[in-house]
Structure formats: C-alpha cells, structure tokens
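Reviewers asked in the last cycle whether our approach scales beyond single polypeptides. To address this, we selected a multi-component target totalling 1078 residues and predicted its structure end to end. The input consisted of the following lines:
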Amino acid sequence: MAWLSDNAFLLGLATLDGLSSAAAIFMVAVGLNLVFGVLRVLNVAHGSLYAIGAYSAASLGLFAAARGLPAWASLPLLVVAAALVGLVLGPPIERLLRRTQDQEPVLQLLVTFALFMILEDAQKLIWGVRPVVSDAPVKLMGTVDVPIGGDVIPFNAYQLFLLPGVALLTLAALVYGLRRTLFGRMLVAVTTDREAARALGIDAARITLVTFTIGAALAALGGALASPTTSLVPGIGAQTIVLSFAVVATAGLGQVEGAALTSLLIGLGRSFAVYLEPELEVVVPYLIMVAVLLVRPQGMFGVLETRRI
Amino acid sequence: MSGARTLAAGLAAALLVVALAWAVPWLRFVLTVATAKGIAVLGILLLLRAGQVSFGHAMYLAIAAYTAAFLAPRIPDAALLLPVAVGLSAAVGLVVGLFVMRYRDIFFGMLNLALSMVFYSLLEKLYSITHGTDGIRLPPLTFAGATLSVEAQSWAVLLSALVLALVAGAAVRVYWSSPLGEALAGIKTREQRLDFLGVPPRLVLLAAYVISAALAGIGGFILAMATRQVTPALAYWTTSGELVFIAVLGGAGSVFGAFLGAAAYELTRVYAAAFVADAWQMILGSVLLLVILFAPGGIWGIGQRLLGRRAAGPGAAATAGEGGP
Amino acid sequence: MSTSAHRGSLTRRSALGALGAGGLAIAAGPGIAQGARPAELKVGIATYLSGPASVFGVPARQTAEMLFEELNAAGGIGGVKARPIFVDEGPGVDHFVGEYRRLVQSEKVDLLFSAISSASCIACAPLADELKKPTILWDCGTQRIFEDGKYDYAVRSQANATPEILAALLYLLKAKPDFKTIAVINQDYAWGRDSWEIFRTGLETLKPGVRVVAELFPRFGASDFSTEVTRLLATRPDVVLSTSWGGDLDTLIRQAADRKLFDRSTFVLPLAESSLERVGKALPPGHIVGARGDHWFLHPAPQDPARLKTFVDGYRKRFGTYPIYSCHHMAQAVSCMKAGYEKALAAKGGAWPNDAELAAAFRGLTFPSPTSSVTIRPDGQGLENQLIGTSKHVDAYPFAVLDEMVVFPAEPITTPIGQKSTDWLKTLKPDMVSSMPKAMPYRA
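The resulting structure, written as structure tokens, was:
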C-alpha cells in the first residue's frame, strides 16, 4: 500500500500514456477484426495497408504544406489519405481474396502474406528508405501541461485528446452501424451464416466488398493517425501486424467491443510495464492473449462456433 | 506411388542434390539450408493434414538451434548433440501441445504465434546469456568422433541433412498411412466422428504436434550446423510464415512437395536477391501469389499433373487438372 | 527516384552478366593464374537494402557507387577497373551466410566489404578465413570480433563500439562534470545493450556514485516513445543517454523536443550525427552528439580539407543530402581497399597479389579517410579517431550543427591488443578526462 501511494503519480501518468496508445492499437486492430468477421481470413496485408496509409498521409501533408495550405488542413487530410488508400487498394485485394475463397483457409491467408511481401517492397520503391516525417498536426495542437504531484508534465495534445477521441468516435460509429443500420444488420447476418444470409436474398458479395474496403480504410486511418507522431521507416507494417493479430485473437473474432477492451488492456499493460518492469513491455500483448485464451478459448467476446458435422 | 518406387525416387533426388552441390560449390550451402527447411516443413504438413496451421513453429527450429549452440562446447559431436537438441524441441512441443490442443483454426495459429514471439523476445531480452541479436557462434563439431576439415564438414552437414530428410520423409509417409495418421485427416473434416469412434482427437493432434516439433527441431539443428551462427531471427514470426509458405509452394499433399518447395524457395530467394537486391521480397511474393492462383496444388501438384497427363493421355488431362490436396 | 531506378536496371543487367560468367567459370574450372592482372576487380558489398537499417545501408551503397565510378575514372587500381556487387543483409544471418558464399564461389569476387550488422560480421569473419577471402569489416559496431577471435583474412577499416562510446562518455565528464543521475533509453538489441554496458562500465570507473534512475530498452523499431518520455520527464535525470539511431532516434528526438524533455535533461546521443539533417532544428542546442568516428561534413581540422570538400560536395550534388557516418565508413573501406592493393602490388614489384598477400597487406596499413586517416592494427582492428560535439543552432543550416568539437585520437581510447573491453574499461584513470584534446568551435 505504501508503494502504491508513493507511485500513484507515476501510475496516473502511465494511465494517460496507456489510453493514448490503446487508441492507436484499437484503430489498427478494429479493421482487421471487421474483415475477419466477414471474410474469415486473417489479412496479413493489413499491416501493409497501415504502412501505406501512414506514408500517404505524410506525403499528402507535406504536399499540402508545400502548397501553402493552412496548418489546420493537415488534420482532415489524414482522413482523406486514409479514405483514398482504402478505396484504391481495398477493392482489388478483396477481389483477389474472393478468387480463392473456396480454397483452404491457409491458401487465403498466404495470398495476404504474398501481398504483404509485394507491398513491403512497393513502399520502399515509392517512398525510399529515408525516414519520412510530417508532424504538422502534432505541432498544430501543441502541448498540454498536466499538473501531477507538484510537477508539471507536458503531453502532446494530439496524443492525449485527438487519438482517443477518434478511437471513441470510430467505436461508436461501428457499434451504431452494426446494430442499427440495415447494412450493419446484413453484415452481421453474413458474418454469422453466409449461406443463410444469401438464401434470405442478401447480396453477400457486395457486403463483403464494402466491409473489406472499410476495413482497409480503417487500417490506413490507423497508419495516418500514427504518422504525425513518428518517423516512417521500412518495416513498420510487419511490426504492426503481429500486434493486431494478438488483439483480434484475444478479443474474439469479429468483435468490435472486444477489440476496444483488448486494446485498452494492452495499451495500459504496456505503459504500466514501462514504469514497473520495462523488460516486460514487449511481451505484454502476448501474455494478455495467452491469459485470456486460457480462461476463454474463444476469446474475450467470442462465441463458440457450433461444429458442423 | 508404391513404397519402393517412392524410396527410389527419394534416393534419386538425394543423389541429384549431391551432384548439384558437387558441380556448383556455392549451392552446397543453399541446398543444405533447403533440406533443413524441408524437414521442418514436413512437420507443418502433418498439422495441415489436420487442417491446422501453426504460425509459431520457428520456435522449435530455434530451440534446437540454440540447444546446439549452448551445448556444443560440452557435447562436441553432432551424433550426440542431435538427439539432445531434437529431444528438447519435442519435449517443449509436448508441454506446449498439451495446452494448444484445446484450440483450433485461427486460435491454434495465433497461440503458436504468441508463444513463439514470447520465446523470440526472451532470446533478445536475456542478452547476457544469448548475446541478443548478435547470436551465438557454434564451434566446429565432430561427426561420430571424426574431426573434419572445413570443406569436409560442409559435406558432412549436407549428407547428414539428406539422410535425415530421407528417414524423416519415409517416417512421415508411414505415419500418414497409419491409423493415427488417418485420424489426423478426420480432425479436419469431422472431428466429432472421431469422438464417436472412440478416438480422442486431442491425442491424435497432440501426437502430430510433438512429431512436428521434433521435425522442426531437426531442421533447426541442421541450420545451426550449416550457418554456425544462431540468432533470434530464427524464432521470428516471419520464419514461421516462411515454413507455411514453403509448404504451400511445394504442395501440401506430399512429402516430396516439402523438399521441392524448400529448394524452390531458397533458389528463388538467392537468385532474386542476386538480380534485384532491392526487391527480392516482391519477387518471392509474386511467385507465391501466382502459385496459389494458378496452381493451388503447388509445385508437386504441377509435376503430378504433367505426369498424369503423359500417363493417361490427353483425355485425362481435364480431370487430373483438379490438382491440390 | 528516376535516377536510382535507372541505376537499378544497370546493376541488374550487370548482375545477369556476372551470373552467366560465373556459370561459365564453373565449367571452365579454376580461374586466373596467380600474378596475372584480372580483367576486372569484383567487390562484394554487404549492406542493408531493406528494413530499418537501410537508412544507413542505402546511403552507403550510393557512396560506394559514386566512389567506384571516381576510382575507375581515375584508372582503377593498378589499371584494373573495380565493380561493386551489392547484397542485402536485411533477410538475416542465415541468408547472408549463403550470400557470402555465393559472392566468393559463384561471383568469384576478389574482396568483400561486410557488413552493417554485428551479427553479419560475427558470422562472416570466420567465413573469410575459411574461404580465404580478404574481407573488410566496414561498419559493424561490436568490439567482440577481434577481442574474442583471431582472423587472418578479416580486417576492420573503422573503430568499434568501445572507442565510439568511450569518447562520448569522456566528453560528457568534461562538459558536465557534476551530474548525479543518469537514465538510458536504448534500442533493445545487441548494439543497444552492448553500448550501455560499455558506457556504464566506463562511468563506474571514472565517476563512481552516479545513480542510474531508469534503464529503458524499448523494442527495436518502436514507433512511439511517449510513455518513456513521460517517465523521463517525471524522474528528471541529469543526463539521458541514447545510442539509438535511424527512425527510432528521429522519433525520440522529436517527441522529447515537443514535450520539452531537452529542457530538463542533457542528452548524450553518440549516433545522432546521422539524424541531424533529418530532424532539423527539433534537436535543441546544448546536447552531446557523436558520429561513430570523426565523421562530420564541417570537421574543424580535416587532414586534407580539399579531400573532405570533394567528398561532401560530390555526395550532396548527387544525392541531395550531406553524407552521414555510414557514407564515411564506406569511403574508408574503398580507401582501405585501394591502399591495400597498392601496398601489395608494390611489395610484388607490380605483379598482382594473391588473396593471402592482399590480406597480409592490410595489416599495419594506414590509409586516408575523408577527414583524416585510419591505421589497421596487427590484430586487424582499425584505429579511427572519434569526434564528439555539442549541438548548436546557426542561421546557415536548417538543422543543428556541432560546436565545441573534440577530436579524440584513436589509440588512447581503443582497447589495447589482446585485452577485452569490459576488463580494460575498469582500468581507466581519471587523467583521461583532463588530458582530453582541446575543443574546437563551430566555424562557418
């Protein structure tokens, strides 16, 4: 207890960082989770979409700045870049996956693995290897001084407010969209039982296409939102994808709320680890995943599938 | 193919590898690596037969390789070190297997991935023991007591790899046609029927899992002897992905596919790296994509289709064209 | 972009030709007779073309392309033109070992430059002896190679982690002698761990009693250090050490600058020279910056100012940025190769040296670098001076430049032959700090 009161301030700080990093994790993982729900394939190329979204947002931001666009424009441009990447790359990748949808799941997964390898080099050919930076949004929003324990700690307003804000909005929009709109209900129907949904006259192919495109745009948005806070280098996609996998499996497949809760656990877990036992930070997501799956083999929010005989 | 014919074909393939390695010295190393990975891929094939994909088998590769690196100063003979290293891989496979047997499909794959990533992190984190990313260097080993020159040693590694590959390939074929192996395919299609028949599916899968861990261990041990430097990269998720990649590239239905796939993979990688050092990943990815889209049976499937066509005449081509497992 | 694509296709074509020739050479049996001049000098160069370390690898390849062209335009080496063949270290050690063999046995290279990653160097130094192929270790950091092993065919044309980190420590002890607390934030891989071990051992010997308040090793390639920055802001160490590089370091510098961590702690950044131009004025004045050698385009006292200017201007004109330390390291390797061949040729009265003679020629060789010169010790380790400075903002450059520069002569800060760094660092004497060379100010 004495330890807790001594370290309460530090843990308060860790919570702030944890929330912001949870928001970043959620933005990447939720798209993957959505796509898994309808296509039943873990999209390895999701990591590439993240990276391309990040690079595109940075390029667009730099281009706008060079053209003399006002600084506030850099924020909406992040969303524009993500939407563009989703629309341009989403549909062709979905078509490719549909070509293999009647084959073994492992083949579909490898299609995305192959795409990942191709896109990894494509990024390098387009953006080179020199770290790319466009931090106008972070600069624009400035810092916020958080008074804590007689000290004042400056935080980036972008990371403290904007990232969690966008994540909450996305969560709310997805939950509303899935529960309350016709499209959302059709999507849930396709997710639950594709054949039955088709029999009811739902255009499953179109639902899948739209969902995949949304998922791709969300991946790109995750990258675009992360881009102002970091330097973009080759290989960022590979590192993102494993983390998203861990979130998806822990959450339960296709579960949006589960993805949110898992991201929160992982974000907080990692930032607490930095204060308490930094060496554990890297393995936190996997430990959480193993712990959750031990108790609930179908994931936190997953539903046990009935075995088809 | 009948047993005897398959064995003859395997021997012929091994002889071809030896001839190639003799004619083109630098290929000796590449072919050794390909054979090693081929053995590990056999383990992936076992699990694929049950419809399960492990994205973490690189862990067993790395366990054996690191065991070899740590124990080589004390047990300097390959013949003694091999069973220890592979035994440890299999033992860890048993412990992990008891846990992951409860899971199927994506959860099975992801749990394996998670555990291998934890292991990978440990290799990096325990820097004072493992030297992190610098890795550990293996001293030269003796072979059944004989100390060999550098040149002879690289031959010894290749030849032992080929012998192990033949033994492992034959063993996997025997296993496949045994009741345990047949039951494995049952897990993929109708797991509950196994239960009704009184065959516990978990035990069936566990046996396959332990064997696959041991096979990955053999591959890892040979890799360690060939590169003589083991690094955590052996356990990274992309290495696991590579093994699955090779399984599909070669053709998931056949023992030969594993080795064909491994050879094709390594050669493509080496040549792609030589021609376009900048974009070798793109080339490998494109090859994989083309194989999946146009020849889902893998290289072995293509070969079979060609053979089938010749044997049965043009009329049979259409039906043989189905290919694939 | 278009120029590099063009160059890519050239390399591709020549690689095609080379493979064809390699195939023929296999059929024709053993190659050229000893002593005869080869038609071409083939140099295998291992560098990072993919992954995060390509921020060093690609500029180094560009440097090599530029310098090989210059070398050939000036008549080559002993009249023989040299051609680089690049291989990617990115896929990892097991692939690299195969590539090394391919270069030696199939491409029949005469010489190799290898590598950026310490793991690649540790793997290829014994391979050099095994295949009896002269190999210049051109950029890797680990001090273990010549401390733990003895190699006849491998030499190193640069320093190693020990002098690189020790120089930064000595500079800190002189510039800020009364600090009481320190924190470290290094990348979690061999270099990050090794460099901290060296720094800490030296610090405990030269200034015992400094408290280490945080040891942070974020994942290699991490894209966000917010939590780490918060923790450092809250703990307020006097000094923050980071030997990170590339995108990781750029991000750390930016996030620390945004959140005013630079106001609370003095940073020691032994590799920051390679990030200066990219991070612009985000790096505030007053922090300690190193360059893994005496590599700085505004070196205050270059041995041959014209040579440095030609190098810097040539690189900048062609590639649009100032050369970073990996470019300098590549330049040293090219210079080492040229000087080594010339020495071996002279020793044989102009006849072409064989592999063993070339390898032997590198021992004890002194060759010019863009800023000064490097000498290779009998054990194969290079003696390279170290430049450390303090960041300063000036109007002439859109990024921080170095002020108060100290150029450490190589010998006193390099572990002596036959000793291990961790043992030697425990024997350092405080007069090392007082006998440091005088600092030189920034001059436009």
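Chain A has twelve helices and two strands. We regard this as preliminary and will revisit it once experimental data from Aim 1 are available.
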